[in-house]
Specification:
The protein is α/β, with parallel strands linked by helices. The chain is built from 8 helices and 14 strands. A hairpin with a 2-residue loop joins β6 and β7.
Length: about 250
């Protein structure tokens, strides 16, 4: 699931011992076809779009939930995105960035920045094909968020508040509870996000908690309000409801 150990897309290497498993199709034609499908629906949400909150698991699991959010951007002149995601591979404090963003759809221009560089982070990288599909020439500012306090999140939000860009925050919700328990936990997390409820942050169950702290501070600063687009968990996809991961998308 979130860890990428189980996934539906494999390469076409005839030697099965060398086959690799990927988060999304590595074939350009297949990826384009999948993105066309995932971006085909458009939620009935009439509001100015400042940003999105999207999941980052393999497309076979959370692609439809993410696609519902990204479909709101179809037809928009999207030139620049500031993309925040949690760190899954290394622990650190503060912010980092990525040195390279490349998918089967091509290489993405990364905004110059002075953050320490990481070689990979799927919470960021899994968003790139969606954004490339909307605008192949898009510029991305990838921000990997390490351990930060609420106060530090507020300071970061102030640093980015004047940027003329779309904000995207990447997170999955609860991990490895039963289907029923996950729904209960995730519904509370969703309400905390929608209400920007800083008093209940201790109950915010999401792997992207630190990026979400920045999102909440940014929304508070700018007067924006997150609105849920769609919620599902992996049990809805695999039908294995014994241990699931939650996914939700929002617009603000």
């Amino acid at each position: 699931m979130d860890e990428g150990k189980i996934f539906a897309f494999e390469d076409n290497n005839k030697d099965s011992s060398k086959a690799k498993i990927f988060w999304f199709p590595t074939n350009k034609i297949e990826l384009n076809k999948l993105l066309d499908f995932l971006l085909s629906g458009k939620p009935k949400i009439q509001k100015e779009i400042h940003g999105l909150i999207v999941p980052h698991a393999g497309y076979a699991y959370s692609g439809e939930v993410a696609g519902r959010a990204y479909s709101l951007l179809n037809g928009k002149k999207l030139k620049k995105v500031i993309l925040f995601g949690p760190s899954h591979y290394v622990g650190f404090k503060g912010l980092a960035s990525l040195s390279n963003l490349e998918t089967p759809l091509g290489k993405v221009k990364i905004k110059d920045n002075f953050y320490q560089k990481l070689p990979k982070e799927h919470s960021i990288q899994n968003q790139i094909p969606f954004l490339q599909k909307i605008n192949k020439d898009i510029e991305i500012f990838p921000v990997v968020v390490g351990n930060i306090s609420l106060k530090e999140a507020g300071e970061i939000a102030k640093q980015f508040a004047s940027e003329d860009a779309l904000f995207v925050f990447s997170t999955d919700l609860s991990h490895f509870f039963s289907y029923e328990k996950a729904e209960k936990i995730d519904s509370e997390t969703i309400k905390i996000i929608e209400d920007l409820d800083f008093k209940k942050l201790n109950k915010l169950d999401a792997c992207g908690k630190f990026p979400l702290l920045i999102m909440m501070q940014l929304c508070k600063l700018k007067g924006w309000k997150p609105q849920l687009i769609e919620y599902k968990n992996s049990g809805d996809i695999t039908h294995d409801k014994s241990s699931v991961v939650g996914y939700a998308s929002f617009v603000f």
